[in-house]
Amino acid sequence: MASFDDIPRNIAELIAAHTRLYLDDPVRAHLWDATPVGVPGTVPTLLLTTTGRKSGSPRHVPLLYLAHGRGYLVVGSKGGSSGHPAWYLNLVGHPACEIRVGAPAGKARARVLSG
Hints:
This protein is 25% helix and 31% strand. By secondary structure, it is α+β, with helices and mostly antiparallel strands. Strands 1, 2, 3, 6 and 7 form a five-stranded antiparallel β-sheet that branches. Strands 4-5 form a two-stranded antiparallel ribbon.
């Protein structure tokens, strides 16, 4: 599990619970009630699995996304912080990843968009 040292404990616990739900029941986890973390209503999420840049171990994180063509867009904002989230840094180090949008899972290759 990714480190959540820099976010409030209750939010880290909600993210960890959502990750567990996605691993156990991806169909149910896909549409997530995000009101406890300040996002109004139910939002679609995907489960991103990266390779830890230091550990080499799989790391899972549920993320809000937008479908775009044949791919998906996620924003590595870390809640507006000046630093990058760990999953983004993992993707920079190892762009090969897995995404799960509801039940279907598939291999993907991340890239940073600009412009």
